[in-house]
Amino acid sequence: MDIAANIIYEDNHLIAVNKPSGILVQGDETGDIPLSELVKEFLKKREQKPGNVFCGVIHRIDRPVSGVVILAKTSKGLSKMNELFRYGKISKTYMALVNGVPLEPEKELRNFLRKDSQTKRADVFNRAVENSKESVLIYKILEEREKNQALLIIHPITGRFHQIRAQLAYNKTPIVGDLKYGAPQVLKNKSICLHAYQVEFIHPIKNEAIKISCPPPF
């Protein structure tokens, strides 16, 4: 991955990258090199620093998902951004290409999700069950496409595990390529057509309104 070509925002405390699908944000049991390490190595070489370079993970998107990921270049940036996320002061917008066209052009989906650690997927319910959490998102159809597909813009109100993927599948419009949640076929590159399109927040150090976005690859 060419980090330099995928940087979409940078200041003294933060760096935002348009992550391609297939790359982890943070390391896991696979041992594959994650985005955080790729960015750290890039910064080290660019700044010609002999010692360690700080690169903190603020938030994550799933491996097969593409789009905006913000990383912290300083510990101060990391703690301040973590605080914004904790208190819901960051607005995130996604785009998704789905199989099927939703019956309603714009709708709030409100369900209860429960993570299944064995299957590594989220189970969806229309009422509260044990260990479930309420999950809310708003979608809007941007355009209808061939093959009975639709391009949606999505505003998640809550931030649950696999929320968008699970709720859209429960709404009978699984994301294209998302075999885990009922898509009819996998894509050749094993990506899914879900893209973290935009992140908006007030910069916790510069106190400026920041809007970081990048177009989807589908």
Characterise this structure.
It is built from four helices and eleven strands, in the order αββαββαβββββαββ. With 218 residues, it is α+β, with helices and mostly antiparallel strands. Strands 1, 2, 3, 4, 5, 6, 7, 8, 9, 10 and 11 form an eleven-stranded mixed sheet that branches. The two termini are 19 Å apart.
Task: Please give a handful of descriptors for the protein shown.
2 domains; 11-stranded mixed β-sheet; Pseudouridine synthase; alpha+beta; single chain; 218 residues; 36% strand; 17% helix
Total strand count, please?
A: 11
Mean pLDDT: 96
For the sheet with most strands, the description reads:
11 strands, mixed
In terms of structural class, how would the helical and strand content be classed? Answer: alpha+beta
A few lines on this structure:
The chain is α+β, with helices and mostly antiparallel strands and 218 residues long.
Any chance you could write out the topology, listing elements then pairs?
Blueprint: H1 3-6, E1 7-10, E2 14-19, H2 35-47, E3 56-57, E4 66-72, H3 75-86, E5 91-99, E6 106-116, E7 121-125, E8 133-145, E9 149-156, H4 163-170, E10 194-202, E11 209-213
Parallel strand pairs: 4-10
Antiparallel strand pairs: 1-2, 2-4, 3-4, 5-9, 5-10, 6-7, 6-8, 8-9, 10-11
